[in-house]
Amino acid sequence: MSAGQRLENVTVDAPRFERVCRTANSEAYLIVEGEEVVGRIDLHFTTSVVYGVLIAERQLSLEEVAELRTEIDDELVQTADLARDDFLLAVYQGAPVRQEPFSDDDDLPINLEDLN
Fold it and tell me: Which of 19, 50, 60, 71 could connect to 64 by a Cys-Cys bridge, CB 3.0–4.6 Å?
């Protein structure tokens, strides 16, 4: 391959999931590709259904959503060792207002637009 040619098919590593928190019936993870946080998944386990809320920090095609749903199911939902009839996933696109979560100790401005 000459120096001017580009690779047409580049294999991207599967995202990794970094747990943010866990309760008796729910878990939350950051979705990380390389060193970049690209989304967040919150999972809520009931007796028969697992509900998920995915917030993607970039535009995803329907194919990418389907692939990510499969990875979440394989890596997080199925490994929870809970029987389930279905995995329902709501998908949103957005960006965090800031990287760290807000806490009781934060002195929040009156208007969240002041954070930008």
Answer: 60
CA torsion through residues 53, 58, 64, 68, sign:
negative
- What are 26's two structure tokens? 């729910």
Asked if 32 and 15 count as a contact pair (C-beta separation under 8 A), the reply is yes
Please say whether the beta carbons of 15 and 68 come within 8 A: yes
The answer to whether the beta carbons of residues 38 and 31 sit under 8 Å apart is yes
User: How many other CB atoms are found less than 10 A from the CB of residue 92?
Assistant: 10
pLDDT of residue 3: 43
20-56 confidence digits (pLDDT tens): 999 999 999 999 999 899 999 999 999 999 999 999 9
Q: For the chain, what is the total number of helices (H) and then of strands (E)? A: 1, 5
Q: Which residue has the higher pLDDT, 73 or 102?
A: 73
What domain range includes position 73?
16-95
* 3-state SS assignment for residue 15: coil
